[in-house]
Amino acid sequence: MKNRFDYFLLNKPYGVLSQFTSEAGHRSLKDFGPFPKHVYSVGRLDADSEGLLLLTNDNKLKHGLTTPAFRHERTYLVQVEGIPTESSLQKLREGISINDLVTLPAKAQLLHLEPLLPPRPIAIRIRKNIPTSWVEIILMEGRNRQIRKMTAAVGHPTLRLVRTHISFLSIDGLLPGESRRLTNGEISQLAEITQGPEK
User: Fold this and answer.
1) Active-site choice (6, 31, 46, 58)
2) Distance between CA atoms of residues 6 and 102, nearest Å
3) Which pLDDT tens digit goes with each residue over 77-112?
4) 98 and 17 in a common domain
5) Alpha-helix residue ranges (DSSP H) falling in the chain
6) pTM
7) Labelling 14: which of 47, 113, 122, 159 has CA 20 to 30 A away?
8) Between 70 and 26, the higher pLDDT residue
9) Is there a catalytic annotation at residue 46?
């Protein structure tokens, strides 16, 4: 008998942990769904980050999506303090040294219009004399608090961070806290990207 795997996309709200156990007063994934037992997030978003999480009990797929050899894009919308110059954006693209390791080349562009996102439940602290701006950053890796460390390194601390895509999977159509199952077509595409689950 073949194993049955479950695959879900969740738009993780601000203040929620990417796990099923609560800590330090934060809500967790158990407050959403309901999800089947043994389903866990593939990678993480910090409690103060928002956006797309992939949940599954397919361990082979998890391995493919979290192993550096299987590189795939992760797209983020990032509100930062100040307005990055082209020089600052180029540093993000070329790689930033974090804990003696240089990040992989990334894509980074300044957005000229504020993205259409639901308001965050806790307002961003904005200093009156410092403007803010939005940057789209696409990574090929996922280190701990990587984007926050990268933008801080070029002098533009992150104020709000929303992951919108994991490879071809998109947050479109999901409000914060909403989830959906992946389609068979999406599961097949993921299997191709990661030399996916054996049939």
Assistant:
1) 46
2) 35
3) 999 999 999 999 999 999 999 888 899 999 999 999
4) no
5) 59-66, 86-94, 146-153, 184-193
6) 0.91
7) 113
8) 26
9) yes
